[in-house]
Design a protein that fits this description.
about 260 residues; alpha+beta; 4-stranded antiparallel beta sheet; 14 strands; about 25% helix; about 30% strand; globular
């Protein structure tokens, strides 16, 4: 059973604690709804870039030789449009463009040299926003470059948020640490940044003999409730994440975030 894997965690978390944990407040619920939506969006944007990268390699023999310099991911209703581009600065133009629905490529265009449409102003902003990772001056927790997830801004001149995510380099080991968020202005200035953990933390899901892992379990010190990174990792791994924060435990999935109730002693 799924929750059997959390029993040891909950016993450890609450040992010696005799007072009941505080209930979830309306303010926390509103915050968690935003966190849940953002975690889902991070995963969807990251997945769209991943599946189109694989598709690009099937339709462009050598993307590096073709001059690919980067990509953008834009929302289009419930779908995403991913554009891989060539060129530098004002000469950047689309080489490949694909539409992603339900985490798979449903259509694509490959543009021949001389017929490549220039990037639009919003696409240029998304491409430029990736520079925030260098401006943050952070280091990932594996020996691979950060994965960059750029959140499309709500307005043409609004700030852009960029997640620098530590990449997985070992099968079965999932980085919980080494994830950062930077906010960059329309002028390209880094306005703020934050970390989601204080140190590196790579977790390997454990399973009983002959069984399957049931959940991941972590403690969190930087926020009063779970974050979008907990949601993202839960969707990525396909397991609930139990998060211990200040004497309370939360169950996080891609569908909900809720307090784990315990009986008073």
């Amino acid at each position: 059973m799924r929750h059997l894997a959390a029993i040891a965690f909950l016993l450890w978390l609450f040992v010696g604690v005799s007072t009941p944990a505080a209930a979830q407040t309306a303010e926390e619920q509103a915050r968690l709804e935003r966190v849940l939506g953002r975690g889902r969006l991070i995963y969807a944007l990251d997945r769209a870039a991943w599946v189109t990268t694989d598709d690009l390699r099937q339709h462009v023999r050598d993307p590096a030789a073709a001059g690919v310099r980067g990509w953008t991911v834009e929302r289009d209703g419930s779908a995403f449009v991913v554009t891989f581009f060539t060129g530098e600065r004002d000469a950047r133009a689309a080489l490949y463009r694909a539409r992603v629905e339900n985490n798979r490529v449903v259509s694509r265009e490959v543009f021949a040299e001389g017929a490549r449409p220039p990037l639009t102003a919003p696409q240029l902003r998304l491409a430029d926003a990736r520079r925030a990772i260098g401006l943050m001056n952070q280091r990932p927790c594996t020996n691979a470059p950060f994965n960059a997830v750029v959140i499309p801004p709500d307005t043409a001149d609004g700030p852009t948020e960029v997640y620098a995510l530590t990449a997985q380099t070992e099968t079965g080991s999932y980085p919980f640490g080494g994830h950062f968020l930077g906010t960059i202005s329309s002028a390209g200035e880094l306005l703020s940044q934050r970390a989601f953990t204080r140190s590196c933390l790579n977790i390997q899901p454990q399973a009983p003999p002959g069984g399957q892992p049931a959940a991941l379990m972590v403690t969190h010190l930087l926020d009063p409730t779970p974050t979008e990174i907990h949601v993202f990792v839960s969707i990525w791994v396909g397991l609930p994440v139990y998060v211990g924060i200040g004497g309370r435990a939360w169950e996080v999935t891609g569908e909900r975030i809720g307090l784990v109730e315990r009986s008073s002693r």
